[in-house]
Design goal:
Elements: E1 10-13, E2 16-19, H1 30-34, E3 37-45, E4 48-49, H2 52-65, H3 74-88, E5 92-101, E6 115-123, H4 134-137, E7 139-147, H5 165-176, E8 181-185, E9 191-194, E10 198-203, E11 206-209, H6 219-230, E12 235-237, H7 244-247, E13 250-255, E14 259-266, E15 269-270, H8 277-291
Parallel strand pairs: 7-8, 7-14, 11-12
Antiparallel strand pairs: 1-2, 1-6, 3-4, 3-5, 5-6, 8-9, 10-11, 10-13, 13-14, 14-15
């Protein structure tokens, strides 16, 4: 895959369309040093950004949680995103919207910094999140060594760049150990999510998923819950201890990038993918939902 700083095309940057290579920021930007940065990832299906309105609303909410406001209203960002996708000529791909504090000061207090916004889009290569055959074979997960912080010790409801350092370390370690991703626990020792996707289990034809007490409210997760309700699949949302991985008969993760991916293994617990009708129903339902966005 071509490194992102060497790609060609255009990016929307602070109200203007600029060449890809010119979409840069200073090395002393507050967002780089103090993680005052938020983002959204949005899938493109048939040339249409999926649930763009919901993603932009969450971006704005994330920024406010980190104590800054976006410089552009939702209508401007919506139009800019559509323009970026059209200019890129992408029918199936991914959008990344970022907002961050600028370089006026380098200290923890940042009341006088500017706020910048960028929108970029690119085609998604096969295996962007997991191996190209992961939908059929499932992915293997292991419990990571770091935990998500409690909601009273970090801005857990913001899709903030700084929150992902935990996932980066844990996923790197998981990959080195032969797994595809890591599962993160919360401060109480309950399951939360994978490093970039929400977690669901199946048991006796029903769904079980952790609360979002210490993480963002997933847009894809909300779609899965709605699909399950429509299909008459019961779902329990609550605290799930790691031992539940051994009680469940299946599992999957869901997110913008990975969509819905079945899990074949969580550490020593293995799942039979072939006979899990709940997972298959939701995968098919989600595929119908996103293709209907065209």
């Amino acid at each position: 895959m071509i490194p992102f700083d060497r790609r060609t095309g255009t990016i929307w940057y602070d109200g203007a369309t600029v060449q890809w290579a010119d979409a840069t920021l200073h090395v002393l930007s507050h967002g780089l040093h103090y993680a005052s940065s938020v983002f959204e990832g949005i899938r493109i299906y048939g040339g249409t950004p999926f649930m763009l309105t919901e993603h932009l609303a969450r971006l704005r909410a994330s920024a406010r949680i980190l104590d800054f406001d976006l410089e552009y209203d939702d209508a401007t960002l919506h139009a800019a995103t559509l323009d970026v996708v059209e200019r890129a000529g992408i029918t199936e791909g991914y959008i990344r919207v970022n907002a961050w504090r600028g370089s006026e000061v380098i200290q923890t207090a940042a009341l006088k910094t500017s706020v910048h916004t960028s929108i970029a889009a690119w085609e998604l290569p096969a295996g962007y999140y997991a191996a190209a055959d992961a939908l059929d074979k499932g992915i293997a997960l292991t419990i990571g060594r770091y935990r998500r912080p409690s909601p009273d010790s970090a801005p857990v409801k913001s899709k903030a760049a700084g929150s992902y350092m935990i996932g980066t370390v844990c996923k790197n370690e998981a990959l080195r150990a032969g797994f595809d991703d890591a599962l993160l626990l919360d401060d109480r020792g309950n399951f939360v999510e994978a490093t970039g996707a929400h977690l669901f289990f199946t048991k006796d034809g029903a769904l079980h998923t952790p609360t979002t007490r210490s993480t963002i409210d997933g847009i894809t997760r909300a779609c899965v819950l709605a699909l399950a309700e429509r299909a008459g699949i019961a779902c329990t949302v609550g605290d799930l201890r790691p031992a539940f991985a051994g009680e469940a008969d299946g599992a999957f993760v869901c997110g913008t990038a990975c969509e819905i991916l079945p899990v074949s293994r969580i550490d020593e617990h293995r799942y039979d993918l072939g006979g899990n009708e709940v997972v298959r129903t939701l995968i098919n339902g989600y595929r119908h939902l996103v293709t209907g966005a065209r």
